[in-house]
Amino acid sequence: MPNGVKAVVMYLVAILLQMAHGVDLEIGFYDKSCPSAEETVRQVVAGAYANNRRIAPGLIRMHFHDCFVRGCDGSVLLDSTLGNSSEKEAEPNRSLHGFQVIDDAKAMVEAQCPGVVSCADILAFAARDSASLAGKIHYRVPAGRRDGLVSIESEVITNIPSPLLNATELVGSFAAKNLTTADMVTLSGAHSVGVAHCSSFINRLYNFSDTDDIDPTLDPIYASILRSKCPSNVTSTDPTVVSLDSLTPAVLDNMYYVGLQLNRGLLTSDQALLTETSLKDLVDLNAYYGKVWDWKFAKAMVKMGGIEVLTGSDGEIRKNCRVVNGGDDSELFPDKLFPDSACLS
């Protein structure tokens, strides 16, 4: 494709993504107010990734968990206070990690442009940069999000999809956020990177049903490997983790779907993508056409990044991503209660 035509195509794709995302967010939102913002975030994420490759799936997952609870407003970043238990305390979020990366990026951006760039946007940029580093998936992020003022532990369980959901429940969970079935299958490909605790899939390895000890849909050799790592008496606090993608666990690519075709989906919710013909067709398409999935993943991430965003004068631009402006830092619970841990899903 000639360079001129390629440039036009990329421009049109960017415009279409922005239109799908909504008029309130804008590509290049900080070009004038803080032109170095996105590059600064990219450098911080790249530095962290060089030291620990689990940072990439961790930040992608954190963005997902942020957007599914109260929209993409940075509420997942808020620490608990003496008077409130924040989203970080909920069981699905206790394994999130990468908060220090966001803190570092925010500090650097604040030093350059005080009070301009929201924590919600920094997280969205960081997730994009993670996709680029882990999978060479590149896309532009419409920005202009404002930071939320509220973070409530109890709202997480009812909004974050459980790894135990079946196909109908998964479709419904994403539909509640105005994401399509195709979006759900596409975004599930983020499981190409990251790991999960044994407790997230132990239900498939022992006492699965009255007739089967092991989930019969699991590849027997794969099931044997999993049982060797995860004993039947494993608890939710056991630190043992297993890669969500057994084929290319460190690369964000379409091999997650190939693994599903081989009956190597780790979680119940992974296997669920094969239980309905319409979902399986999408799995097969993504498995066969990696570059198509790359494009769809970028498009779905941008769409997800527009869920219930705060813009204009709503919310605020936090000075510290862990506390609302005017909050008392002394009331925060100690960070050691919620240390960065392995990236799970």
How is the topology of this model organized?
Blueprint: H1 3-21, H2 37-51, H3 55-68, H4 99-112, H5 119-135, H6 154-157, H7 167-175, H8 181-187, E1 195-197, H9 220-229, E2 241-243, H10 255-261, H11 268-271, H12 277-288, H13 290-304
Antiparallel strand pairs: 1-2
Give the structure's gist in a few sentences.
The chain has 345 residues and is mostly helical. The chain is 43% helix and 2% strand. It has a domain at 26-194 and 244-305: Peroxidase, domain 1 (Orthogonal Bundle).
Which labels suit this protein?
single chain; 345 residues; mainly alpha; 13 helices; 2% strand; peroxidase activity; Peroxidase_pln; signal; lactoperoxidase activity
Question: Could you describe the 3D structure shown?
Answer:
The structure is a single chain. With 345 residues, the protein is an all-alpha fold. It has a domain at 26-194 and 244-305: Orthogonal Bundle (Peroxidase, domain 1). The protein has helices at 3-21, 37-51, 55-68, 99-112, 119-135, 154-157, 167-175, 181-187, 220-229, 255-261, 268-271, 277-288, 290-304, and strands at residues 195-197, 241-243. It has a two-stranded antiparallel ribbon with strand order 1-2. It starts with a helix and ends in a 41-residue tail after the last helix.
